[in-house]
Structures are given as structure tokens and as C-alpha cells.
Amino acid sequence: MNISVVIPLFNEEESLPELCTWIKKVMDENGFSYEVILVDDGSTDHSWNTIEQLRTTHDQIKGIKFQRNYGKSAALNEGFKAATGDVVITMDADLQDSPDEIPALRKMIVDDGYDMVSGWKKKRYDSTIAKNIPSKFFNAVTRRMSKIPLHDFNCGLKAYNLKVVKSIEVYGEMHRYIPVLAKWAGFKKIGEKVVEHRPRKYGITKFGWERFINGFLDLASIMFVGRFGKRPMHFFGFWGTLSFFVGLLLSVYLIVSKFVDPDYALTNRPAFFLALTLLLMGSQLFLAGFTGELIARNSSERNSYLVEKKLGV
Ligand code: UDP
Ligand code: MG
User: What is the pTM of this model?
Assistant: First the structure.
């Protein structure tokens, strides 16, 4: 199969028929074999009925329905598991992303050899204060931390080589960082393509202010797990040792100076409190490192590595 289109949706009943008709038109014009995987993330409107209805006349439509609302990341993760097309396209259900972009995105994966291509909504049709400015800030931070030169990490319209989506696990609010996850999984050829963005036609946005806090916590987790997930002691042990060592030096200095000037009370010296804090913090960090190692050792994935190629096995 050429293409799997994965679409997470939450209460988008009005958009679905138009979206599916449009996708069909693009696919038929280009002669692609395809499937559309609609992941209903616990909608409370008639989205699922609409999907069942659409499937009666449009064979390529497939549906997955969550019992409750788990979030966009979970929906994408399930869609990725089910996908079988050589190229996987994700897009939002609200008609803000245009299916007309599909052929060009697919071309970049198939002909230019990109592992993944992210859409870039260079011109956005969302409110400036609530979306555009926060998004610029978010993208700048993510770009710096991950060293991936993308302008728009969070665009819903993306294309992947099938093996990329089979190698990554998306949860929490991590759909914002799929390029980072892909990079950690070893897929380095990550491209960008300017895509058309349109105003939301029906319904309302499903993401409010809380997305900022959760989003940044998830970035911190990704960076930490990617680098130290399999060796937590290297992180905690380094800072623990450093802190403990500086604390120890300070203590030695304090003890020596007590002999030199016995009248100067230790508790009157700031260095005394600093030394105490550093010694305590150091041993705490060390302990966290050991606990982390124990957990990592017991994890069923401790020795699962992503194998890129196999020969004769
Ligand atoms: N979505 C989802 N689960 C959620 C929230 C959103 O599957 O809990 C879907 C939503 O239906 C849409 C896509 O994720 O297809 C993007 O959401 P939205 O358009 O509300 O985000 P925005 O474009 O405002 O960033
Ligand atoms: Mg939207």
C-alpha cells in the first residue's frame, strides 16, 4: 500500500465527511493505494457514527475508537501501530490541514529519501496571542534543545517513512516532539515543507493554556530519557559526586579555619550552611541514581534496542 493517512479526532463530526471526500479525491487523482485510519479519541458527539457511515461507501476508511479521551498523542500512537502504508501521513481532522499537500509530502519521503517531513504553517490562521506567539517561543526552545532545525515542530501535517512510526512511542503531550523522538530513534534525515494552513471551519480548538506546562515537562522527559534513560547513574552520579566533593572541600576548609581561629563560630559562617546543603544534596542525588539504575534494570525494555537492519537472521 502506498499511503496510510492517520487522523486523530475529538468531536469533529462536522468536518469528517468533507475531509474524507477530499482525501479520496486527491488519492484517486494520483492513483495511490491508501487507507485512512480515523482514531476517535473518545468523542462525545456523533463522530463515530459518522465514521461508520462513511465506511459503508468508502472502503479505505478504517476506524479505531477509544473508550474515553486519552489525548492526541495516544490517538496517534494507536494509528501508527495500525498503519501499513509505505508512507504514513498524519493530519488534523479539523480541515486546517489540506490533503492537497499529500502528493508532495510523499514525494519527499519516497524520492528524496527523507525519514520524516514536517509541515510548516508559515502563514497561520489562528489567534495571534493564544497561538502564534507562544508557538514561536515553543519552537525556538525545542530547536535549541534538540538541535533539529525545524520552524514548526507541532504542525499536525507530517509525513513519515513507515519504519519511523513503528520505532517510536508517543504518549502524554509528546505529539509536539515527534521529530525529537524520531531523532533519538536514529532517524536523522528530517525535512520541512511549507504547507497551507486554513482557518478552523467547524468546532473549536481542543488545546488550552495547560498545554504549555505539560508540553515543556514532556520535552524535559524526552531529553532526559533519550540521553540517560538507560544509564541514570551517569546523570545523577555526576552531579551527586560534584556536589558532595565541593561540600567536602568546604568542610575541610571550615575545620582547618576553626583550628586557626577557634572563636569564630561555625554557625555564623555562610560557608557552613553551603557545605551542609551540598553534602546532603550530593548524597540524595547519588541515591536517586542508584534507585534509577535499579528501576532501569528491572524494566522489560532494558535491552531492547532499535535494530536498523538484519542480514540472514
Ligand atoms: N485531538 C484529539 N484528542 C484530543 C484533542 C485533539 O484527537 O484530546 C485532535 C483534534 O480533533 C484535531 C487535532 O487533534 O484533529 C488537533 O486539535 P486542534 O485542532 O484542536 O488543535 P489546534 O489546531 O488548535 O492546535
Ligand atoms: Mg486545529
Answer: 0.83
